[in-house]
Amino acid sequence: MASPRTDQSLSLGTLIGYSLSAAPTSFSFLLFMVMYLKYATETLAVSPAAVGTVFLIAKVLNAVGDPLIGNWSDRTETRMGRRRPWLLVGGPFAAIFGYMAWAPPASLAEPTLIVWIGLSIIGFYTAYSIFEVPHMALGAEISLDAGGRNRLFAWRQVVRVLSSLVAALLGSKLIQQGRAATESMSLVVAILTVAFIYLGVSRLPKERVEFRGRGGANPFRALRDVLANPHARLLLTVIFIDSIGTGGIAVLTPFVIDHVVGRKDLLQILLAANFGATLLSVPLWLWLSRRFEKRRLMLWAMVASGLAFGSVLLVGEGDWILVALSALASGVAVSCSNTLGYTLKSEIIDCDEYRTGERKEGAYFAGWAFVQKLAAGLMIFVVGQALEWSAFDPAAERQSELVLTTMVGLMGGAPLVCYLLGAVAFARFSLSEAEHARIRRELDARSAGAAGHTGTVPA
């Protein structure tokens, strides 16, 4: 009688393939979040309120579609597996729509340009979900033990941060150089997106045969199961609160560095400080996770994140050192949830299997993505409306005090309040590592018993 495959599949090729396939979409996602609002308003001459509204519509539609994508990927049955077809479709479409967003025809008047931007951004985020939700779900399947999942998602986090760092250093610099450089960059990125995803996916192990046909019966029942899981329900609340706070940080960063601090030339350096701190602290969080429970580490990291982001409230003209310190501290703190959070989510999914006998990774990761994108979309909309309300003038050498106060308040105050509220809520999270270990042993025993009863050997 053979046991189901566990951590033995985590070869170097698997770690590289899984993480490498996530690199190009991370690059593009970072550029959209940090640079697109500024690029659209200052280079394409579109009003910030219009762009903010486009992002809200795109995020809402994207968030609503995530649970459907998650459930459909759970129920997909092909010779390639449940997840691979989605990865191989989502990547090329993300490349196409990403290029369209950054390189609209120069002849378009503003009303038509807004429509073009809207279709491009909605298309990009939809394609991103088609890739990202099944990709995260696949990570929860490749390894079933906490140590293996920590390693797998840590590799993914490292590569995602590296690609985001390249986007921050090189991509944002090219965008600042104008429309021609941006269009050339976006074409290269589109080509590399397809190449990296296909190369990475080709190195992944075969998907688990024993999970085939065990997805939720329909999206509504899957949603009901997610909401019935108390651990998932609490995490949904916390993610929504935190995402309200952080939703405006990325889009406001270039505005604050340029107009509040007055050091536009330091944008790449300050972004690099944040991503560098995130990257270098991954081993720290892995080391701490072997000594302390993930949920406790994540709780204190939330508090630290709120305080780090909140320090932006003190920023004024020339205070680039304070911004750098905030970037470093927030990078270290946020790295905790990005390194350990996916393992925590995978353990919540194991609890659902323990209760329902189904494997609904797609539905769960889609649920968490839904609330995150909805909150982020709302906050980007608020930022766009707030810039319009405060009379932001992209042509002015110096903005009014109302504009500067609005930028700083949204970038520092919102995350400070929301992260502290999120930490209070997350303090009630009750799934311990000991309890999950008991559940995992029971699930492995069930799987081994089923294999022995049928005389089959899981792949």
How would you explain this protein's 3D organization?
With 459 residues, the chain is an all-alpha fold. The protein has a single domain (11-204, 215-443), classed as MFS general substrate transporter like domains (Growth Hormone, Chain: A, Up-down Bundle). Helices cover 78% and strands 0% of the residues. It is built from 17 helices and no strands. It has helices at 12-20, 23-42, 48-75, 84-102, 110-142, 146-176, 179-202, 219-228, 230-246, 249-260, 267-280, 282-289, 294-310, 320-356, 361-389, 401-426, 433-454. The radius of gyration is 22 Å and the shape is globular. 53% of the residues are buried. The model is unreliable at 1-8 and 454-459 (pLDDT under 50).
Defining key terms:
single chain; 459 residues; mainly alpha; Growth Hormone, Chain: A
What's the structural domain tally? 1
β-sheet strand percentage? under 5%
Instruction: Indicate the CATH topology.
Output: Growth Hormone, Chain: A
Number of helices: 17
Gap between N and C termini, in Å?
13 Å
Mean of residue pLDDT values: 86
CATH homology-level superfamily? MFS general substrate transporter like domains
Q: Quick one: how many beta strands?
A: 0
Q: In oligomeric terms, what are we looking at?
A: single chain
Poorly predicted regions: 1-8, 454-459
CATH classification, class level: Mainly Alpha
The description of the largest β-sheet is: none
Tell me the structural class.
mainly alpha
Query: What general form does the structure show?
Result: globular
Helix content: over 70%
